[in-house]
Write a structure and sequence with these properties.
Order of helices and strands: EHHEHEHEEEEEEEHHHEEHEEH
Oligomer: single chain
CATH topology of the largest domain: Aspartate Aminotransferase, domain 2
Number of helices: 9
Shape: globular
Strand content: 15-25%
Radius of gyration: 21 Å
Number of domains: 2
Bound molecules: 4'-deoxy-4'-aminopyridoxal-5'-phosphate
CATH superfamily of the largest domain: Type I PLP-dependent aspartate aminotransferase-like (Major domain)
Helix content: 25-40%
Structural class: alpha/beta
CATH architecture of the largest domain: 3-Layer(aba) Sandwich
Largest sheet: 7 strands, mixed
Strand order of the largest sheet: 2-10-9-8-5-3-4
Number of strands: 14
Distance between the termini: 32 Å
Length: about 350
């Protein structure tokens, strides 16, 4: 068995050196005489792992002192509810930009706590683009504005930071967190499930502006109040220790590779190579508008869908796996997060060209 190039949308590939290091440390971490999974979250060994991981997140993303870094559970899906519960107040309002399924799920949860103004949507064109700033119809009564910075399913990504006026900007960055440098100061809340760019499932990274802590009404359960976790430095209850440890190793790997600016350059190169290949022929087609295209998730269809099954069988046989697209878009999707090496994208491009030669 050798490792394949895994184009899964998530859980997704992890850097091989991270897996090898975790493997070597599996039964004994440092001089602790036990694995990370077996450690008390309040013991000195784990607290050191936690401290280093949190610091690495702060350093990599240049998180300013105005913001707090939290490691929570429940996935990005729990954030869909926590954001309105904490920020809306009772009967409040939120602005939401609808760029497809994940935004819709966030909207559905927000409606349980107040009202939602859909400030813009690209639904009319099956979410093939990101609305522009001048299309946003913001509600002056909204408590915040929520976006999905990268839509994993439709393969769209913001290449600008929306300006929501005086209210905090909240972003679901699950599928492009740490793939590029962003100005954290421009956001009220950034949240992301870890299982695409950060590590294994089980930990949710939340970066929240400190003045937004403590806004939740008393009716909000303790565990769903951001202030609980900020006050206890993410140790109110047992945090997902092993996922945090792997996230720390992924951060070290990112630092060794030059940090997020360097990662962004590689990601631009990988995405361009793949989009250029798809755009260069009528045999394949990419449904997204060029200026809204995701660098992380690249959806494409075959001009002849009768070839889809053959494409998937042959690509898997070539060691290129999990390329089947999401049912709402059809065709294929290649997810090329940070941990997908350039050789993986090169191998996919070679396969695409070869497949066209044989079946075109
Ligand atoms: N938002 C986005 C953009 C996603 O891609 C996903 C998962 N694919 C989610 C939210 C849901 O994340 P989780 O499974 O961590 O709840």
């Amino acid at each position: 068995m050798s490792r394949v190039f895994n184009f899964s949308a998530g859980p997704a590939s992890l850097p091989l050196p991270v897996l090898q290091r975790a493997g070597a440390e599996m039964s004994e971490h440092g001089n602790a005489g036990m694995s990370v999974m077996e450690m008390s979250h309040r013991g000195k060994d784990f607290l050191e792992i936690f401290r280093r991981t949190k610091q690495a997140v702060i350093d990599l993303m240049a998180v300013p002192d105005t913001h707090e870094v939290l490691f929570l559970q429940g996935g990005a899906s729990t954030q869909f509810a926590m954001v309105p519960m904490n920020l809306m107040g009772s009967g409040g309002k939120g602005d939401y930009v609808n760029t497809g399924s994940w935004s819709k799920k966030a909207i559905k949860e927000a409606k349980r706590f107040g009202s939602v103004n859909v400030a813009a949507t690209s639904e009319a064109t099956n979410f093939n683009r990101i609305p522009r700033q001048d299309e946003l119809r913001l509600d002056p009564g909204a408590a915040y504005c929520h976006i999905t910075s990268n839509n994993t399913i439709f393969g769209t990504e913001y290449h600008y930071t929306p300006d929501p006026g005086d209210v905090p900007l909240v972003t679901d960055a699950s599928s492009n967190i740490m793939s590029r440098l962003i100005d954290v100061a421009r956001y009220g809340i950034i949240y992301a499930g870890a299982q695409k760019n950060l590590g294994p499932a089980g930990v949710t990274l939340v970066i929240i502006r400190k003045d937004l802590l403590g806004r939740a009404p008393d009716s909000v359960p303790t565990m769903l109040n951001y202030k609980t976790h900020a006050d206890a430095d993410s140790m109110y209850n047992t945090p997902p220790t092993y996922s945090i440890y792997i996230l720390g190793l992924v951060c070290e790997w990112l630092q060794e590779h030059g940090g997020l600016a360097a990662m962004e350059e590689v990601n631009i190169r990988k995405a361009r190579r793949l989009y250029d290949c798809i755009d260069g022929t009528d045999f394949y087609r990419c449904p997204t508008e060029p200026d809204s295209r995701s660098r992380m998730n690249v959806p494409f269809t075959l001009a002849n869908p009768d070839l889809d099954a053959t494409f998937l069988t042959e690509s898997a046989a070539a060691g290129l796996v999990t390329l089947k697209g999401h049912r709402s878009v059809g065709g294929m999707r290649a997810s090329i997060y940070n941990a997908m090496p350039e050789e993986g994208v090169a191998a996919l491009v070679d396969f695409l060209q070869d497949f066209e030669k044989r079946h075109g």
